[in-house]
Amino acid sequence: MTRDIVGRFAPTPSGSMHLGNLFSCLLAWLSARSRGGRMILRMENLDTQRTSIEFGEQLMRDLDFLGLDWDEGPYWQSERGGYYQECLDKLMAQGLVYPCFCSRAELHAANAPHASDGDYIYQGACRGLTAAQIAEKSRTRSPAMRLKVSGTVGFKDLHYGWYEQELQRDCGDFLLRRSDGVFAYQLAVVADDGAMGVTEVVRGRDLLSSGPRQLYLYRLLGLPEPEFGHIPMLLAPDGRRLSKREADMGLDALRERFSAEEIVGRLGYLAGLLDRPKPVRARELVQSFNWEKVPMEDIFLPEGLF
Ligand code: GLU
């Protein structure tokens, strides 16, 4: 049975959107809309220290300004803790979750850095703790929760093709809940995309390496799996990743210099959908969207384009 297409925006409201976020939102929207799909908006504000409702509201105004609409939401992850706990309980019932007492310093000292994203591969220091050791350690420290991984998981990315990882070797047992009680991105994103019926997850390729972990979780939780479509990263002219720290590439600053159509046209040009950066409305790009036009390599912002 074919499912109706459902895409999503899943921004983290921790600051004003920068060009990289806008690029992801535009392509996620185009990919879904070009196939007649619906869009969901979900605010990934699990970390309430780093995010705010105001940034979330600003983000909705920004999407609106760019002509990127949605049919459902906003959902706020900060309100969905009970549901994430149910998902965690389901995994615990399968005997696949264990408490981890490692401090940040211990984690960095004992674990090899991950080749692609600077993260580390957990070597399992707490995997074999006995009940007595857990009780002893729990007296002084509240643990994080980790998922035991095994096997090889792969998928055919809509853009980058086949991608797989041998989970123990390539990512290691990963966090489901932090020691301060905040649920981990990996658990929440799968729990939500699964529950919300998302059929395609379009986002920056910095998250490509999360795909196998996420599929592993979908299978354990018995949730319907989406397709993944990762997109190249936008890089500053000197090769650095754009980040929220670069105020000049933030939408607040761009809005003072460009109209929505000028911003969308420049992003559409970078995505390979226009042969020159001419002003267009987002909906005028829907017809021309095609994954084959989108570059594979990360994209250097040409000097002077923004
Ligand atoms: N919330 C994440 C971000 O803003 C995106 C997560 C995802 O698309 O899976 O980077």
3D structure, described in words:
By secondary structure, the chain is of the alpha/beta class. 35% of the residues lie in helices and 17% in strands. The protein has eleven helices and twelve strands. It has helices at 19-34, 53-66, 81-93, 104-110, 131-138, 167-170, 185-195, 211-221, 251-257, 260-270, 282-285, and strands at 6-9, 38-43, 72-76, 97-100, 144-147, 152-157, 161-166, 174-177, 200-204, 227-231, 234-235, 299-300. The chain has a three-stranded parallel sheet. It has a three-stranded antiparallel sheet with strand order 4-5-8. A two-stranded antiparallel ribbon has the order 6-7. Helix 7 crosses helix 8. It binds glutamic acid. The site of glutamic acid has 8 residues, from strand 9.
Features:
306 residues, alpha/beta, three-stranded parallel sheet, three-stranded antiparallel sheet, 35% helix, 17% strand, globular, binds glutamic acid
**How are strands sequenced across the largest beta sheet?**
1-2-3
The largest β sheet comes out as: 3 strands, parallel
Q: Order of helices and strands, N to C?
A: EHEHEHEHHEEEHEHEHEEHHHE
Please bin the fraction of helical residues.
25-40%
Shape: globular
% residues in beta strands: 15-25%
Distance between the termini: 44 Å
Mean pLDDT: 94
Number of strands: 12
pLDDT < 50 runs, ≥5 residues: none
Number of helices: 11
State Rg: 20 Å
Which class do the helix and strand fractions yield? alpha/beta
Ligand types: glutamic acid
